[in-house]
Structure formats: structure tokens, C-alpha cells
Write a structure and sequence with these properties.
With 366 residues, the chain is an alpha+beta fold. The chain has helices at residues 2-31, 107-120, 135-140, 264-272, 346-349, 356-359; strands at 50-58, 76-84, 87-91, 128-130, 149-155, 161-170, 183-188, 194-198, 216-219, 225-231, 240-243, 252-254, 276-278, 281-285, 302-310, 313-324, 330-335, 340-345. The protein has an eight-stranded antiparallel β-sheet with strand order 3-2-1-5-6-7-8-4, covered by helices on one side. An eight-stranded antiparallel β-sheet has the order 12-11-10-15-16-17-18-14. The longest helix has 30 residues, at 2-31.
Amino acid sequence: MSLIKSNITMAILCAALAVPTALQLRSEAESFVDVGRIPLMFDGFTADNVGSVQLAQPLDGQPTQPGRAQADTVSYKQLVLALTDAGWALSNRGRPDLPLAGAPAMKSRIEADVFEHLRSIRKDPETLVQPAATEQQLAEYGLDDAHAFVVRCFDRTGKTIVADLLVGQDASKWGKGSGDVRGVFVRQRGSNDVVLYELQKPWRRSVKPKEWVDRTLFRLEPDKVRRFAIRNGATGKRTFVFERGPNQMRWEARGADDLGAPRQAEIEGLVQRLRFVAAQSVKKPLSRAGDMQALGLFPPQITLQVTTQDGNDRHQITLEVGGRLPEKNEYFLTCSESKFLLTWPASKVTQFELDVAQRLFDPKPK
């Protein structure tokens, strides 16, 4: 009998709990957002279809009266990033005098500051701030042609626009985006609907070429380095060469019979310092560098050569360091991996100004 009473009691408790549980589940279901069903401004956008990106900032002094400025009459300072066989690069399209045309562009930044945003901008009742805005309202949001920052993507033929976005004022200036919410006002070209795009992190928008240039020259896997050569002011005209075979850790010096045994740790330390090399700045194409002797690059003050081997593929990289830039802790630099005149920080250069004979070799036994 007691078992029957227990079962009845449990049934009553379950029934009592079922109602609030069902209400709670229903409430959660109503508040759940299916990301896959959120309307997006550029639905279906994928970076795989993009062949170039145009960024444009209207110049100061554009017409300020609503309706007076049109996209085809506004003057812009622009930057075009184009996909080439070697990767993303700065293009001189729209800026024929761009000194850094052809320089590699940072793929990671293009992804983070262009593609990621175009994939993420929502356009639904929660983000729509002003439907069918007038020209006056667009100007107030900074979304008229005279003030809006342009982000435009073309397909790989360069003829079809796959995304065309106008970016206006920071929402916090409107009292929107304050507190825990931050964002900017945006609209799609051809639409006057103003949308609030909430940002999870700062959005870097710039048409300055130097901010998009990839300054990385090369990365090495030290265990694949087979040859390291160095010549500097302390060595005079002598080039010191160190080699090792596959699967070997020990360095052998070539043509250094007049010196003692090579110091393995010191040589390996120099090679390790070259595992990742990036320029301090990218100046101009080597074809326009001018007098290389005046830059201290003919002959160079320091020459470094590294040869790597991956299977049967051998690759040699050469760095040549020139003179110091006036009033800067940088030195002119050329690299076989780049067609541009570069600079390198003084902190990097000094690591290779050592007296090779004394620092990388033991004293020769008498």
C-alpha cells in the first residue's frame, strides 16, 4: 500500500513540475536565435569569389547639401587590393602614382577587416534603424555619398560587384552603441535602409597603403637550414660559411682551417634569429631606389645567406644590409624575397655585426 502511495505522490510532483518546465522550455525556444536563419545584408557572400577589394574615403570639401553629392561626382582617396598568382597585393588601380603598387598585402587583415564584416552584417527588424531614409537622414547618419566610407568587392573578372557597402558614423555619437553596445551605421549601395552594425571588436578602416602592406619577408624552419653564410664589416671581404647535412645538428665551417672549432650554440643562435624576418618598413620598388651606393647597399655593410632544403628542393635567401637612415634606428635592407627597398630595425642589425672569427670559433690550439 505504501508503494502505491509513493507512486501517486511522485506522479503528482511530476505533474506539478511539468507545467513550469514546459513554460521555461517554451520561453527559451522563443528567445533562441537560429544563426543560420538570420537575414544578412550580403547573403551568400564568400571570399572565394572575390578578386579585388576597393576601399574609398571621400575627400574633404565635398558638397554638403543632401542630394547634391552623387557617387560618380564625389572625389575619393582610395586603395585597391588585388588577388594575384602570388597572393594579395596593393594595386595602382585608381592611384597610378602609388609607390607601393605590387607590394604584398596582409591576407589576415583583408579577412579580418573586410570579409569577416561583409559576412556578418545583419539586416532584420532588430538592426534596421531607419527604413527608406531620406537624403537628409542619410547625411545625418554619415551614409550619404559625400561622407560614407566605401567597401566594394569585385569578382575575379573585375567586372561584377559582389558586395558594395557604405559605412557611416559611429553609433555612439547618436546615443546608440553606448554602454555594452558599439557599432556603426551602414547601408547597402542602392538601398536607403539604415542598419546598425554592432561590432564585437574595433573595425580598422583605412586607405593608407602602409597599413595594409605585409612586411613579412620569410619564415624558416631552423632544422631545414643546410647552409648559413655571413659577411660584415668585422670580417672585411671574407665570407664565413657554415654547412650541415640532412638530419645533422652539427655545423661545419668551410675554408676556416686557420681558426678553431666552430661554436655550435652561437652559430645556431644566429640561425634561430632568422626563423622569422619582417621588414620595419617598405619604402619603394628597387627599380626606383636610386643610388644604391649612397644607401650603403653597394657594397652592402652586411650580407647574410641562408639555404634551406625540403626534400629535394633547395632554396637560398639573401639579406643585404646597408647604411643607417638619418635620425632613425633603422637600416636600409634588400632581400631576395622582395622587389622593394626595405628597412630593418637597428636591434636586428646589431645581432649580425659581431666579430665572426672571435665569436663563432674557439681559439685555435697552438
